[in-house]
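REQUEST ID: PR-0412
SUBMITTED BY: lab tech R.K.
PRIORITY: routine
TASK: structure prediction, single protein chain
INPUT:
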Amino acid sequence: MVDWRVSGFTEVMELGRGGQGRVVLARHDTAGTPVAIKYVRVADREPLRHEARMLGTVESPHVARLYRLVESDAGVALIMEAVEGVTLKEVLARHGELAPEAALVVLKGSLLGLAAAHTVGVVHRDYKPANVMVPADGRSKLIDFGVAVAAGAASASGTPAYMAPEQWRGEAVSPATDVYAATCVFFECVTGRRPFAGAGGHLSQEPPVEDVAEALRPLVAAGLAKDAAGRPASASAFVEELERVAAAAYGDGWEDRGVRVLAGAAVALASLFPLAAAGIGTGGAAGGAVAGGAAVGGSAAAGGSAAGGSAGSASAGFLAKVGGAKAIAAAGGTAAVVAAGGGVAAWQAGDDGPPPRPFTPGEVTLAAETIGDPAINLAQGTVRFVRVSGHSDPAVQQRINTALHAPVDQAVADYRRFLDEAGGLGNQAVPGPPRPIEMRSDVVYRGPRLLSVRYLVNVPVYAGGGAHITPKAVNIELATGRVLGPEQIFTAAALRDPKLAELSRRIPPPPEDPAGGLECGYRTLTERTEFAPDHPLTGVSFSLTKAGLETMFTPDEHCIAFNFFKPGSVPYASVEDLVRPDVVKLATATTPP
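STATUS: complete
OUTPUT:
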């Protein structure tokens, strides 16, 4: 069969080929930007689309991203950014162990990438040195979610040298599974060898902490705990502990020194950089992450990982079948693929964005929709919500509008839940009159990079004849469609004790007596989290503005009416140690990206 090609690109060289596809280096015909295109032949595309939905929401400079997914009768093409770099696997093979500061930089970058995936419920489960790229700037980055699964899924797949005990037993995986693998790689970076030789070591031997510097032993012991519950609660939490240990042991400049060491190691291997070999420049971008060395040719195309010997069946993850890389972020991500050390590499690089068109955020308008269902005693009513039109990227626009419509969908789901909790219409002796869902919509802030919208959603509570009103904030990064909820706005430490108590003190609820003698029973942030531990800060909206956080608390039900919802304002300076710096930068930007 003749190879098909995506129009608008000229192929420069083929990087790899296998039973299910090929990867080529190409130039965009108009912009001249180098890209990598992965062509995939697959009969059933639904698994690919499923992983697109799962991974498409991961937005982080530490995770590989994708320009575009193109489908045709001949197959699927993934168009990705091409930037120079070399795998950590190659660095360790050529240079041996790393200085502690450099190893800590590798671990930090990887954990930040894993944390971004964990935020949307994705567990990598195959983290290894071949899945880390060290570019010329020394900033390590993670790619290849080729065997990724949703958190909580059972798994016996991965690369044996880095598999956690629960993977060996075929049990459910969690973010702690990735923390274990990242710690294995960290141990290899500082010692030049892997912590355990086989399954027995991973399942029963104590972590060999005596082989690392004393200051690093607590990190290794915690990350390699046999019981997942004994490891750091999340990759984000592990990063915070890592930074504390690194600063105490190696001083304030530890990260800069580590980056310089890694940059030197990468540049020493510049002969492996594929774009230079092809005579193609990258416009100055130098960041990157490697897609697991998952070669498109040979066994990797059938589901294995040529650079690490992944265990498990070929059907474990669709991306593993076609050569790895986070190649399915069809909802608006960007990624890259090059050949590096005999494998296929993918990475995120810089802020260049897709080559075909510049970013324009689009227009913000109000839309109306009629919802109601007589069968469940829900009266028809008109709800108004915010929409974006004219965005330069249709896929990102769709993501934005899906997020802006989500409160409407949630309102209908809440009504059905209230009705089910009341026993359904059949269990009501005298059904009350139908009542509609109501919604008040406000654009809180519209900046060059950020849109912040707040809804007040009034859902009839069928059983008691009352209403359930909640504020819903939707904060969206306009360039990518990334939604910023509490977990993305605040640091990981801010959402748990003891810092949660400090956050609660600095963001208090409204006064108890907003209507002259009526006690509304507002709960503090700490009380709300204790009341609903699985839903941090439920019942409070956090809207991002240029000046600070705008908050709105839900009062107790007997006090509910639209006029009891009063916004509060907290300057960023008052919570700067608890809010992520990149969020403040996004909200206070004066120019588009």
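NOTES: The longest strand covers residues 378-389.
REVIEWED BY: pending
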